Amino acid sequence: MKNLLSVLKISVPDKIFIKDPETSELGKRIIEHAISLIEEIGFESFTFKKLGAKINSNESSIYRYFESKHKLLLYLTSWYWAWLEYQLVIETFSISDANEKLDKAIDIVTRTVIEDSNYSHINETVLYKIIVKESSKSFLTKAVDTENKEGYFEIYKRIITRISEMILGVKKEYPFALSLASSIIEGGLHQHYLTEHFPSITNCDKEKTPTSFFIHLVKNTIK
Question: What is the pTM for the complete model shown?
Fold first, then answer.
């Protein structure tokens, strides 16, 4: 999988950015340090001025790539979902048993992320922490319907559709495949968040992982 991922370009909808940050060293530095700064201070406190100071560049140079920090967050979340989709496709491609394929898919989208050395300017482990804490802020906005029509969330929706198709592969008459798939995606993030910040209201921990919970939930839901 790693060999294949190394030759694939993670594609983000081009309306999200003004200039593709993957096309220049400055763009890659913007993404690399935006990830570390958002994780350090949180998205609310994050500004392009602070990012510019971190990369020793003018704030205006960042605006040549993204028109707002919201668009930057959309870029980061879209990149993450595209990266995850590649793993989902590659790691389940050769699995013929429908139940085994679904279990593997749940594992991929709910497991704790480890760093992928194929993308030196993006620390996936840190990015995942941002996804857990901040990703909902990319779509819980007044502009969500307009941005949805413009295709900003196409990768996120596509990965949910892929999982729903695997659910139907196990039980074709199940009437809530999309609802269950989206619950797995968002619920996985939420359980990881609860485990870190509100452990008293979740049974998940290092031994009973969110992955084991959602495999148990899905199996009992569609049995």
Answer: 0.92
Taking the C-alpha atoms of residue 15 and residue 167, their distance in angstroms, rounded to an integer, is 32
34 domain-assigned: no
Q: For the stretch 27-58, what's the b/e string if a residue is b when 16 or more beta carbons lie within 10 angstroms of its beta carbon?
A: bbbbbbbbbebbbeeebeebebeebbebbebe
Range of the domain at 180: 2-14+80-221
- Judged on CB neighbours under 10 Å (0-12, 13-18, 19+), 159 is buried
DSSP-based three-state secondary structure for 21: helix
State the average pLDDT over residues 32-37.
Answer: 97
Which DSSP symbol is given to 123? -
**CATH number, residue 108:** 1.10.357
Q: Where are the beta strands (DSSP E) in 52-171?
A: none
19 falls within a domain: no
Q: How many domains does the chain have?
A: 1
Residue with tokens 């485990």: 195
